[in-house]
Write a structure and sequence with these properties.
By secondary structure, the chain is an alpha/beta fold. It is about 50% helix and about 15% strand. Strands 10-11-17-16-15-18-19-20 form an 8-stranded mixed β-sheet, sandwiched between helices. A 3-stranded mixed β-sheet has the order 4-6-5, with helices on one face. A hairpin with a 4-residue loop joins strand 10 and strand 11.
Length: about 750
């Protein structure tokens, strides 16, 4: 695919590089050439330069900048351009903590780790593991205030590439966690462990060392694809970290997504398991067509997938008979009485028996009449030759119609103890015309043609979040898509009129603000941009300039209050219910919310606290809409008022995802206190969830996650009957307004009580 030309020139990129280190400027041109070759978009180049400028300003010397400039583009060429900004911000996060000595080892580990992982998802897992080890090993007072750096974080980053030469990411995580916890009270033992000098470190490494790593066999498997299937597709590993919800292999425009490790299984080596999986995927690519999914029920689709998987495997085994032994050995076997039809839905059980019978018609041993009848029909069709995917559609519909039983509707569903691990997830088979609640839109071409595609109004791709499944007691990974957008603007005069209407309340709030304002102020020196000139630094810079020395550009300074360091995020529920007019009020909840938010924003602006405001609503898990009304660094002015003036009621309330997204921004603030205020009028709900308590439990879990990250969450609720479910989500950190018409006055006062 041809690369898009860059909009900016090399001179533009040089101008955007603001680093004052001479060594960094000397190597910038060759590094820029490498970046232009490895990065494929202006957005990636902008992120790359912003990251370099950030590293220059964080006060850790020139070495970190040089490593980033030289190795950053090569790193993201392996793990994806989206990671370029994350790497610099990760280093900045280390630099602004007590673990600044780990910045250079981390940056030095980027490229060798990326060469082993070759996947953005896996690289993100490595970064998360680094933060986990930092939390586990950094000394602190009462578990909160870090006072010394971790004794082993730098050694972890130095050793990680060596360990990944033997283990996959899951093995590295197990090895590192054991070392952090087993020697939690002995820093010297931790250092020996993380440098592979202790016996238990080597023993643990050997214990975790097993299976066949994809990274070690990519070239070998690539030759296999070229020789047997005449295909040259990239092999992209994904981490096998979560054994409870294992990811399925799949293929897309980026290549073939495979697990990063396969163990030997029943005498089949890991390399042969990879060959079986690749053979199955290649058979789909060569012989499978697509099916319009909207015409069939979910159960019918499952049956069609079983028949189509068996068809392409039949054709592959005809071409390469050696695959028979591997396919037969790897397919799980279930007994005919494994599922209790008196209390369980046995659809999956029948399909698993059918799958084995289609693969091994002579030796499956099942007596089920429908399984045997359709196995014979399938093989008769295959013997006739010239089969198509449409033939398997017919067989799938017929099998579900003939084998249907009343117990299929039981709530307790039987699931197989093992899945057929050499089969991919079959997303390539399905084309969706209309999006349903249970469907994923996997076909990009079909999705791009839909006028109602989720996220069509958003410039950024969605951010994926997990969702807590209270019934299963586990997270559904990457389950919810949250789309970011800047809220459109209207006329700011509307908000000014609201403030004039409440001039009396505004005056009282200003008096309270004066009491809350801290009096002590401290200087922040060495700023490139600031409120005033720092004369001492400016004079020194002038002397340097006249002496022929590159002057320090940080000649400004600013001030901040020394006693109050808090960042606040206000999350406003914009679901359809806020368009209602409560009993006894002449205004809708939306209008009252606009007035309350306006008064709060004006008060917080006078107080000097950074405040972000956003609204949210949802339309199934595929589209949670998060509208930015005010950013932390924006002032309460005409632009923000213009956005607030035109907020509208939306659809549903998937609160957990919105809380996680707001917390994502708030957790990265460099403040001692972080407060997330939630203004809502109802229980979490969405149209694709039948049990509303599931979303309540997910919101409660999101609050727990934020609390662990140091974000305090508080809810202002407008439903007088909300005590039960709001307490379940927020504990005792909530206030319920019995008289909604008092919201404009109550919201700012509540904020001052919480933060005062």
């Amino acid at each position: 695919m041809a690369r898009m030309p860059f909009e900016s020139t090399r001179e533009d990129y040089r101008d955007r590089f603001k680093c004052g280190f001479d060594q960094a400027r000397e190597i910038f041109d060759p590094c820029l050439s490498n970046a232009l070759e490895k990065l494929g978009s202006d957005k990636a180049m902008d992120d790359f330069l912003q990251g370099a400028n950030l590293l220059c300003m964080m006060g850790q010397g020139v070495e970190s900048v040089l490593i980033y400039l030289e190795e950053g583009p090569d790193t993201v060429a392996l793990v994806g351009e989206a990671m370029i900004g994350d790497l610099a911000h990760y280093a900045y996060k280390l630099a602004t903590s007590t673990n600044a000595p780990a910045v250079v080892p981390f940056l030095q580990s980027m490229l060798p780790v990326a060469r082993r992982l070759e996947c953005g998802e896996a690289m993100q897992g490595f970064l998360d593991l680094g933060l986990e080890i930092m939390r586990e090993t950094t000394p602190s007072i009462h578990g909160h205030h870090a006072i010394h750096p971790s004794p082993v974080l730098d050694r972890f980053f130095e050793t990680a590439p060596r360990v990944l030469a033997w283990l996959n990411l899951a093995g590295l995580a197990n090895w590192a966690r054991f070392g952090a916890r087993a020697h939690a009270n002995d820093p010297d033992a931790q250092k020996a462990y993380f440098t592979l000098k202790s016996a238990d470190s080597r023993t643990m490494l050997q214990r975790e060392r097993h299976g066949t790593l994809l990274a070690d066999n990519e070239r070998r498997l690539g030759y296999y694809l070229q020789a047997l299937w005449a295909v040259d597709e990239p092999l992209v590993p994904y981490p096998t970290l979560d054994s409870e919800t294992p990811q399925r292999p799949y293929f897309d425009e980026h290549g073939l997504r495979l697990p990063d490790l396969f163990d030997d299984h029943d005498g089949i080596p890991g390399i042969d398991r990879y060959r079986a999986l690749l053979a199955h995927m290649m058979a789909h690519l060569e012989w499978s067509g697509t099916i319009v999914a909207d015409n069939y029920s979910p159960m019918q689709r499952l049956a069609m997938e079983v028949f189509e998987d068996a068809r392409v495997e039949y054709l592959a085994m005809e071409r390469y008979p050696g695959l028979c032994r591997i396919f037969h050995a790897l397919h799980p076997r279930v007994a005919e009485d494994d599922c209790d039809g008196t209390r369980q839905s046995c659809v999956n059980h029948r399909l698993m028996m059918l799958s084995l019978a289609l693969l091994d018609p002579r030796d499956h041993g099942y007596a089920d009449p429908e399984v045997n009848a359709f196995t014979e029909r399938f093989h008769q069709r295959m013997r006739e030759g010239d089969t198509r995917t449409a033939d398997m559609v017919e067989l799938g519909v017929g099998f579900m119609a003939r084998s249907r039983r009343p117990s299929d509707a039981f709530a307790e569903v039987w699931f197989p103890p093992e899945r057929v691990e050499f089969r991919d997830d079959n997303r390539h088979l399905w084309r969706f015309i209309e999006e349903g609640d249970e469907e994923e839109l996997f076909d990009r071409e079909a999705r791009s043609s839909q006028a109602e595609e989720p996220g069509r109004d958003y410039a950024l791709p969605p951010r994926l979040y997990p969702e807590w499944d209270s019934e299963g007691g586990l997270y559904r990974p990457d389950w919810v898509s949250v789309f970011d957008a800047l809220h459109p603007a209207g006329q700011p005069d509307h908000v000014d009129r609201l403030l004039e209407k409440h001039e009396g309340i505004s005056r009282q709030l200003r008096q309270l603000v004066d009491l809350l304002k801290p009096q002590n102020r401290e200087r922040i020196r060495y700023q490139e941009e600031g409120a005033e000139l720092d004369l001492d630094v400016a004079i020194r810079a002038m002397i340097d300039r006249r002496s022929g020395v590159e002057p320090d550009p940080r000649i400004n300074m600013s001030h901040r209050h020394a006693e109050r360091d808090i960042s606040v995020s206000l999350l406003v529920d914009l679901s359809a219910s806020i368009a209602e007019q409560p009993e006894g009020s002449s205004q809708t909840i939306l209008e009252l919310s606009q007035e309350a938010v306006s008064l709060l924003a004006e008060a917080v602006e006078a107080l000097g606290d950074p405040l972000a405001i956003a609204g949210f609503d949802s339309n199934t898990r595929h589209e949670v809409r998060y509208r930015h009304i005010k950013g932390f660094d924006e002032h309460w002015g005409m632009e923000v008022k213009a956005r607030l003036a035109v907020v509208e009621a939306g659809l549903s309330t998937r609160m957990g995802a919105a809380l996680r997204h707001a917390g994502h921004f708030l957790a990265h603030r460099d403040s001692d206190k972080k407060l997330l205020l939630v203004l809502t009028d109802g229980e979490p709900h969405d149209v694709d969830v039948r049990d509303p308590h599931r979303l309540t439990a997910d919101a409660r879990q999101a609050v727990k996650e934020l609390d662990a990250e140091g974000v305090f969450t508080y809810c202002i609720h407008l439903d007088p009957r909300a005590d039960a479910y709001v307490r379940e989500i927020f504990g005792h950190h909530y206030t319920i307004l019995d008289r909604i018409e008092r919201l404009p006055e109550a919201l700012p006062r509540l904020f001052m009580q919480i933060t005062g």
